[in-house]
Amino acid sequence: MTCLTLVAISCQGFGEFWKVALDLDQSEVTLLFGAPQKLRVTSTDAGNDFSWSSSDPDKVTVAADGTVTARRTGTVIVTAKTTDERRIGQAFVTVPRGQMFTIRGGTTTQAMLYDPIAGLFKALPALTATAANGASLHPIYQGPMQGKILVIHGGATTTTSVFDPGTATFAAGPNLTSSANAGGHAFATGKGTIVCVLAGGSSMATSVYDMNSNSFSAGPNLTDNAGAGSKTFPVTSGTQNGKFITMHGNTVSTTSLFDPADSSYTTGPALPSGVAAGTNFLAVTTGASAGKTLILHGNSAATSLYNPTNNTFAATGNATTNINNGASAFLINAGTNAGKYFIIHGNSGNLTSISDSTADITGWLGGQSMPFTSGAGSHVFRVATGLYAGKLMVLYNSGTTTSLFDDASDSFSNGPQMAMGGVGLGAATLEIP
User: Fold this and answer.
1) pLDDT digit string (tens) for 198-220?
2) Quick one: which of 3, 68, 104, 116 has the most CB atoms within 10 Å?
């Protein structure tokens, strides 16, 4: 006696019904956020009544008619069964990494999605309010909004939006307890359900978002005002392991140290010089400075390294020109400069700097010029999969242009056009988890 099926089913003797494969129109599906697809049974002798199920509904949901919708990245098995369960068909459905969600900022409601498979951007519906200076994005990992993205609008307002990747739509979110403005940003506190949102705008105030209640409450005050250029980075080793350092911006060298254990701020280590608009940071993973954090100071050419071993900052020499709005830093992964660090200066220019050695970050040399100027709102992301996998995408504030940086050839080329009018102050991009 033979058992025919798509799945492993043992023969259990004379009383066991045969189980025969149920053919579907697709056995492997690549599913993008905001683009549901319908699976169909193609076996002509199976009738019209089926039940559908997903092996992980947190990643992919399936409706009664076989329509699959992306919720999170990953691969699931979607199964169709006849009502008597004698016939079963299955398809592997993959939601690929590298799908990027971008808000334009610049006091607009525009947003877009990047499709890594086609290497194209597509426009999204409007945010529920304009996004501007102080805007930021944060994924929601649990609670009633699980799988969605919180959008802080900034622009000296308390409003937020919640983006649903499955439907590619926005809904109004809960209000902050204090307005977000220049220097405002959000970071996960390490407690799982909590996000701390700095008000910026020369204020010490923070708001705390609780994922489980989808609401904000007033958070602890910083030890100094935060303004343009304020950024927060995690401490991942050393005496302050698990804490977070907030650089205040506002051209000052002071910092605050956030402790998730009691949700409090204390005075942090001083920077070697002030930070302002254009400040950015990057975890160093190669060379003698591995484990440290590289700081671009903004409003100057200064850079520094944070050393978690002794909880101090030290200057690392000046970049080749000033760093300002639109600045970014990243590691070069291949080619003659593999292992070095690359700075895009912003400041409405097209100049870059490269660290002078793969052994350590001690100084900076001039890098390849970009084809377009980067300024307020310009930023970068590494393409994870698809047509431009491994390349760096640069979003500019000069029209709808983008560039692709190829590490191996140490060169820029023109990238796909944005599906919105460039980027501006408050622009941000997040990979959808």
Assistant:
1) 989 999 999 999 999 999 999 99
2) 104
